[in-house]
Write a structure and sequence with these properties.
By secondary structure, this protein is α/β, with parallel strands linked by helices. It is built from 12 helices and 13 strands. Bound molecules: pyridoxal-5'-phosphate (PLP).
Length: 369
């Protein structure tokens, strides 16, 4: 059997007719920038995300950077970011001129450890950026309380958490803004780069929208120095179709996660993802943990069986060369450091079949016997 880590072709084939027709229509209408598809996505995604406003932008990294810039975060400010994430979370902070302050993560959820945030707060701290990693929303009630207490802004990186809930609420409910990426492999993926900011704050909406479109208030009238970070109309057209399927796809991911957990629960060599009662993870990734001495061998063993896996992430952010100027030691963030050595992401996507999941599980079990 050959099992891809993410099989974008299967998903495309399942909705091919609708997609092909919509793209063809867009070409006929030469509606490439702005227009009705974009407006439709803005409204539909705001509604989906249960926020008042949505600002479609060019990608998920820009979404973070524009949201922070629009909130006035910049040079001299510090932003607290989990040490276990995709680099974009930290990169966006650096690119808006602020300083990244890493925080270690919780060993079971892999999300920012709330208990470790407060000691990092000082006069320069301007914001906290929880990242809802692997599809699981960080404990937002506690984080919001901390942010209120210290008058900090809260930007949620929800790029892996389309469709996730925490205490019944989606990303963006507790924070000043939440940002999404529609990179092709995400739970909701475009056919290229795309991203969005969602918020309930009207001033933030107006400012972010202006920044993303050259600071423009009317044609050739530019109020501030902005940038070009528009979502392509073609990507909006594709996302408008795919958004209708997102809930079904997320449910299927949750089913796959349950199946993996059921089938692997008795294996003493594997730490499974842990579900808390208030969690409704969107399972962007299904991440297990094994002994450091076994991780790479297990990955190779699965590869030999035709099963692709991933490591999210093999180098913790504080160990990246890009962040060596912060002069951290590996064990400054021991949990993130340990995760980088021990985690393994199994294939998970809506089109993955049950018999394939069983094959993955059997192959893992065979490795440990
Ligand atoms: C994918 C991702 C991003 C950035 O998305 P792009 O659209 O690739 O810029 C940011 N944060 C996290 C956690 C991500 O997984």
């Amino acid at each position: 059997m050959n099992i891809e880590f993410v099989d974008l072709k299967r998903q495309y084939l399942s909705i091919k007719k609708e997609i092909d027709e919509a793209i063809f229509d867009s070409l006929q209408n030469t509606a490439f920038i702005g227009g009705t598809a974009l407006k439709q996505f803005e409204d539909a995604f705001a509604q989906y995300a249960e926020c008042t406003y949505c600002i479609p932008v060019a990608n998920g990294t820009d979404a973070l950077e524009i949201a922070m810039t629009a909130l006035g975060i910049g040079a001299g400010d510090e932003v607290i970011v989990p040490a276990n994430s995709f680099v974009a979370s930290a990169e966006a902070v650096s690119n808006c001129g602020a300083t990244v302050v890493f925080c270690d993560v919780d060993p079971r959820s892999y999300n920012i450890d709330v208990a470790l945030i407060e000691p990092l707060i000082n006069q320069k701290t301007k914001a906290i950026m929880p990242v809802h990693l692997y599809g699981r929303i960080a404990p937002m009630q506690a984080i919001q309380q901390l942010a209120k207490q210290h008058q900090l802004l809260l930007i949620e990186d929800a790029s892996q958490a389309h469709g996730a809930r925490y205490g019944g609420k989606m990303s963006g409910h507790y924070g000043d803004a939440a940002t999404y990426s529609f990179y092709p492999g995400k739970n909701l993926g475009a056919y290229g780069d795309a991203g969005a900011i969602v918020t309930n704050n009207e001033a933030l909406y107006n400012q972010a929208k202006r920044i993303a479109n050259h600071g423009r208030i009317a044609k050739y009238n530019h109020e501030i120095i902005g940038r070009n970070s528009r979502m392509d109309a073609l990507q909006a057209t594709i996302l408008n179709i795919k958004l209708n399927y997102l809930d079904d796809w997320v449910e299927r991911r949750q089913h796959i996660a349950r199946l993996y957990s059921e089938l692997l629960q008795d294996n003493p060599h594997i730490q499974l993802p842990k579900d808390e009662p208030e969690d409704q993870s969107a399972y962007h990734l299904y991440v297990i943990q094994v002994a450091e001495s076994k991780r790479n061998a297990l990955k190779d063993h699965l590869k030999n069986k035709g099963i692709a896996t991933g490591i999210h992430y093999p180098i913790a952010l504080h160990q990246l060369k890009a962040y060596e100027h912060l002069q951290h030691q590996a064990d400054d963030f021991p949990i993130a450091q340990n995760a980088s050595k021990c985690v393994l992401s199994l294939p998970i996507y809506a089109e993955l079949r049950d018999d394939e999941i069983e094959f993955v599980v059997e192959s893992i079990k065979a490795f440990f016997t």
